[in-house]
Amino acid sequence: MLTAARCLRGLVRGLIAITLAGAAFEAQAQSPPFHMYNPADTAMLGDIIIFAANDGVHGVELWRTDGSAAGTYMIADIDPGTSGSYPNGFVAFKGRIYFNANNDVNGAELWSTDGTAQNTGMLLDINPGPSGSNPFFLTVKDAALYFQADDGVDGPELWATDGTPQGTMLVEDIKAGGDGAYPMNLAVFSPNQINSILFFSADDGINGRELWESFGPLATETVLVKDINPTGSSFPSYMTQVGALTFFAADDGVTGSELWRTDGSPDQTVQVRDINPGVGSSLPQHLTAMNGILYFTANDGVNGAQLWRSDGTPSGTYIVRIINAVWGGANPSGLNLYQGRLQFNVLDRTSGLTQPWISDGTAAGTVPVAGTNFGSAFVSWSAVTQTADGSPLTNLAGYRIYFGADPGNLVSQMEIDNATATSASIQELPPGTVYFQVTAFTTNDDESDRSAMVSKIVPASP
User: Fold this and answer.
1) Cα–Cα distances in Å, from 391 out to 8, 9, 250, 261, 386?
2) Residues 19 and 115 in one domain
3) Same-domain status, 68 and 107
4) What are the φ and ψ backbone dihedral angles of 15, each rounded to 5 degrees?
């Protein structure tokens, strides 16, 4: 892999045009010289996108784009020089974008921006000095932004802000002392239009890591929901609301990691079903709500990892369709929604390739995308001729196109073994939003950073 100093020049400065088969449009994006730091970590502010990028001069800093070349630029050099402030965790709140950034003076702290340099700044130096409070898991609930932060006294605990320095406070010192409860997996449950509940996992030093809830920024409003594993930690995770319930994975110390549900009360915080009977874990993951039903992946110990559904009852929790059981399961991944149906990927054990599937929640309606109307894309780029230091590139071997339905994990790849190529056609794309990035590689298999990401919606077949 080429280092940042040796990354190939030209690719990210080129023109990437995408045309989807059957669509009546063509999208073109002129990319300035930068590399997105984490394409999955962005936030919308009106008609602009806020993200982190590296232009090779300022390090990873705060950027914005409105989709045009003129509207794509660095907002602020938060940490002047080449080191970069590494902004991350972007979330929209009260007309601004909040994020974690390190200016190399105050350490990693909570910052916000309205998309302009003059209105970009640190909200509060929560942990005074260079250590930083390192705010994580930024989550909006009602009129407050919640997050994990370490003030240097109480350790990593639950904090909240109304967007002002004076309104930024420790919610509760859940684990007394300086070790901190490390609240994580923050998720908002909204049973009505008036108030909502913040669920999260935390370790109070007594009950282990368990399920907690907060109704507001006052300490008396933040409580342990239930000690699910009395002998240790239940490690609740993947909290997902479906109707009046929040589902999650947890380990009670007896039946392993299984599917649980809660309405916020101890009595109604119960295991839905012991999917893998006994001490074995079914490991529920990829929890996704669709049409009032929870869909997720789990392993019952017999059929391997499969797609499951649940209405919150034991009898209403079952495999949607058994796929590849003889090969050890389907190992579904990348669950997402498109036009009222569930899309996911299945590992094809014959070809070794990932195959897109689609489901309406029934066994008959859970089918591979093969046989439906695929889409296609035409991707083009400008030729790479130089390295980052301006010297001629003499050993270019070709290009690689990365694409997929998850912008944080482009699982598919097309390799173009032609140094003179500047375009390629990608066929049989699954329905839904597909993301694309391009790299160049040399005969030594050195590879450039990926280009700016572009995406288009491939229509699902009727």
Assistant:
1) 10, 10, 55, 60, 6
2) no
3) yes
4) -100, 120
Q: Do 6 and 444 contact (CB within 8 A), yes or no? A: no
Whether residue 322 is contained in a domain is answered as yes
Domain count, the chain: 2
Amino acid at 199: F
Q: Is 129 exposed, middle or buried (0-12, 13-18, 19+ CB in 10 A)?
A: exposed
Is the per-residue pLDDT at 9 higher than 60? no
* Residue 7, pLDDT above cutoff 50: no
Q: Which two tokens stand for residue 280?
A: 């074995």
Tokens of 71: 């509207």
Higher-confidence residue of 174 and 369: namely 174
Residue positions counted in the chain: 462
pTM score = 0.72
Residue with tokens 């239940």: 234
What is the rounded CA–CA span in Å between residue 161 and residue 231? 35
Q: Is the pLDDT of residue 307 over 60?
A: yes
Task: Report pLDDT digits (tens) over 320-363.
Answer: 998 876 667 888 998 999 878 999 988 766 555 678 899 999 99
Structural domain boundaries, residue 228: 37-332
Mean pLDDT value across the chain: 85
Sheet holding 168-172, edge to edge: 136-141, 144-150, 156-161, 168-172
Burial 176-213 (b: 16+ CB within 10 A, else e): eeeebbbbbbbbbbeeeeeebbbbbbbbbeebbbbbbb
How many angstroms separate the first and last alpha carbons of the chain?
43
Give the least confident one: 93-97, 185-189, 197-201, 338-342.
338-342
